[in-house]
Amino acid sequence: MNNQPTFSNKAQTTILIRLLTYLKPHKKAVFVALALLILTVIGDIIGPFLIKIFLDEHVAIGNFDTKPILTLAVTYIFIQFINVILSYIQLIKFQEIALKVIQQLRIDAFTKIHRLGMRYFDNTPAGSIVSRATNDTEAIKDLFVSVLSSFVQAGFLIIGMYIAMFLLNPLLAMFVLIVLPLIFIVIYYYRKLSSVVYLTMREKLSELNAKLAEGLSGMVIVQAFRQEQRFHDEFNEINQQHYRAMMDNTKLNSTLLRPVIDLIYFVAIILLLTYFGITSFSTSIEVGVIYVFITYINRFFEPINQVMERLAIFQQALVAASRVFTLLDHEELEPRQQETNAHISNGFIEFKQVTFSYDGKVDVLKDISFTVKPGETVALVGHTGSGKSSIINLLMRFYEFEQGDILIDGTSIKSYSKNELRKKLGLVLQDPFLFYGTIESNIRLHDQSLTDEDVRAAAKFVQVNQYIEQLPNGYQQNVTERGSTLSSGQRQLIAFARTIATNPKILVLDEATASIDTETEVAIQGSLEKMRKGRTTIAIAHRLSTIQDAEQILVLHQGKIIERGNHQQLLVQKGLYHKMYLLQNGIVE
């Protein structure tokens, strides 16, 4: 636990203030809820006072006049009835406000996740991100639903009870006031000790989610390589750490929450009864006053007990909020664009002395320079880790680069709006991703500018239309998560159709045929040639047979371009490309 980050009172206050700013759009609803809460508190204070009047002015002196007693009874019942209704309405109001706040927080978190740069996802497990957007925001909801309303109610009750006690007996009210510092001391130490415990709990819960998400997404590999026991042991270790943190929390709550407050309550009752007992020797004590003070102290400690019990929820909510705000404040955003009115018209690409590093330490691209003329195809080849995908990542603006520049039609890609780049650059990845929905929605991707004819034309263009039309529901056939019911070749063809439907000016193929069998590959080569016509194309390929007609082939090694030329020129050079070609064709020199 000592290795956990600290969570100071100042940091907690800052987070609480930031959370409260989410109430600004709901000021009217908050005002109504607080007004109802104040009315219920007033009802709680008046109720015992009416009973005091009944005891002192009727029971103690034997005055059982029907009319005033009936008036007191009706008033008391009416106040209690109204209190029940007001409590119900204010509870609904607080719930409504809380749900709207959490709704906005989740929208903010979800929106921020989609604006984060790829570096963030490289370094953060998906399960941890999911935990912040779901579990942590759910914990914050409890803060607004049960904690803040309880805190406010307790505050009004304490103030109201003290005012009533001072009106009845100032000396005794001052005497009861002594217990407040003791309660504040308990609250202070509980917050100080529990913050670290809750921080550990949330972190371990996040790690549990991350490990579970990793196991589910890689289940085929887990079972194929018999990794079940390893995953079980790793999950069990994290689960054990979470259990220990939960036990630390339980021990802390068992010590500093209700038991200590109950002890202070019993001491206060004993002192109060002792005072009345001593006073009774010298003067008469009204039964109603004794009843009111004992009732007020009881009701005084009841909200304090509720506050102490909800301090656990309060601490969890603040820790959860700190994790959500850490996500919202993360500065590794998508590369910023200058949002000018520049448009891509020809698709002329130029890399000028681009050097790039993912971690700021090791350069994965070193002084990369090349040009791709409009309508040309440039292929990138090289061994794994040579920098091929990094070139694609920079061209697509997934990562920011600091050295050199990338131009399209003579203008830096940093000067194009993100919308213009995404519209004019079409990307097909090696591992195509299909969303849950239908085949039609996966091709259209909810682009309302595309008609049904455009979708079908795109499918026909890449020769996947015949397969789709043979399905029971055709283009409305349901697609499961990640398209698991389709073959890799079918998923790739649908991804091709998705890209071609937008009619991009520049085509980026990241080993787009790697997941397609040889027969399917031959069938779509004609489609690929049609796709490339009139479009600037950059293609990464492991199968050299698919890029032999490229106008220029760049051979990369350790982040540098070591060879360039067309297929025949590179074979004549007898360099790395020549060796790769011989290896793939099974030729031994």
UniProtKB/TrEMBL annotation:
SMART domains: AAA. PROSITE patterns: ABC_TM1F (PS50929), ABC_TRANSPORTER_1 (PS00211), ABC_TRANSPORTER_2 (PS50893). It is a multi-pass membrane protein. Residues 349-583 form the ABC transporter domain. The chain crosses the membrane at residues 29-49, 69-89, 143-165, 171-190, 256-278. It is found in: Cell membrane. Keywords: ATP-binding, Membrane, Nucleotide-binding, Transmembrane, Transmembrane helix, Transport. InterPro entries: AAA+_ATPase (IPR003593), ABC1_TM_dom (IPR011527), ABC1_TM_sf (IPR036640), ABC_transporter-like_ATP-bd (IPR003439), ABC_transporter-like_CS (IPR017871), P-loop_NTPase (IPR027417), Type_1_exporter (IPR039421). Its main location: membrane. Gene3D superfamilies: ABC transporter type 1, transmembrane domain (1.20.1560.10), P-loop containing nucleotide triphosphate hydrolases (3.40.50.300). GO terms for molecular function: ABC-type transporter activity; ATP binding; ATP hydrolysis activity; ATPase-coupled lipid transmembrane transporter activity. One of its GO terms (cellular component) is plasma membrane. It holds the Pfam family ABC_tran. This is ABC transporter ATP-binding protein.
